[in-house]
Amino acid sequence: MLEYDRRWFLKTCAIAGVGLPADWSVRKAEAAAPAVLSIARSRGEPKDAAAVANQARQLTRRAIDGLGGMKRFVSRGDVVWVKPNIGWDKRPEQAANTNPDVIATLVEICLEAGAKRVIVSDNATNAAQRTFARSGIQEAARKAGAESFFLDSRKFRKMPIKGKVLKEWEVYTDAVEADKLINVPIVKHHNLCRATLGMKNLMGVIGGARNRLHQDLDNALPDLAAFFKPTLVVMDGVRVLMDHGPVGGNLADVKHLGAVAAGTDQVAIDALGATWLGAKPGDVGHLVEAQARGLGKMDFESLAPKRADI
Predict the structure, then answer these.
(1) Other CB atoms closer than 10 Å to residue 146's CB: what's the count?
(2) Does pLDDT of 134 surpass 80?
(3) What is the C-alpha radius of gyration for the chain, rounded to an integer number of angstroms?
(4) pTM of the full predicted structure?
(5) Residues with Cβ < 8 Å from 138, sequence gap 6 or more?
(6) How far apart are CA 291 and CA 295, in angstroms?
(7) Residues 97 and 27 in one domain
(8) What is the pLDDT of residue 131?
(9) Which of 16, 137, 199, 292 suits 144 as a labelling partner, its CA being 20 to 30 A distant?
(10) What's the pLDDT at 33?
């Protein structure tokens, strides 16, 4: 509504003695509020690798557009750390690592928004030299204009996490010092915590004996989520590893879902990812704990997600 029209409407109501609806201002505020969650889905299944790559790129852009565009999150001159899962020595079609075309598209969008530098990296579980190459992520990120390098062990520093179980831990300093952190997990089954999603993906910017966290993932993962507070989470559901995760390897365990979601509520977007695996969010312990700590909502539908089909 134009400002003149708004003033005329208010004046007319006052003269006529007509009160505005009690929830008018609430409805106006809700209409103006930016989206918290955006979900892009594909209507069809691509027939070849080139079509999958094109689908991943379209879905990623539509998911970000649903939130109002990347300029909502990235400002001119920002240094942006894009954090995919590059943990495993697997090919993209095996769905153990984040889709490389999702990452490349995010790099392009960040640069279009004015980012000065975009960094794409991860603390790989398998040898980084193999995982970065075989995953396709390093090459795709560099072609899109990002820096993609192996983490330097000298740059891990103990920092106060102040969590329930993680009081302090070794954290990669560059990831913390970046202006913006965008967490980009792939949706996968996990044999210990049912699902590896956004919060689990944050383990890739810490060092130390990470296997110790598996003793209490339900508390450790919310600790990391509360510490890092990523600017944005982009969930790769182009291909989903439905079983034998987090490593996988058998193409029979991979489902082509054709979906990408983006959001600012870490709990909500992880809850959505859990449903893509056929799980109930309430059955995933770290989601229940994260919601109890006030980190977000498992009931992602209550956030009125924006939806787009391609």
Answers:
(1) 26
(2) yes
(3) 21
(4) 0.89
(5) 86, 120, 132, 148
(6) 5
(7) no
(8) 98
(9) 199
(10) 83
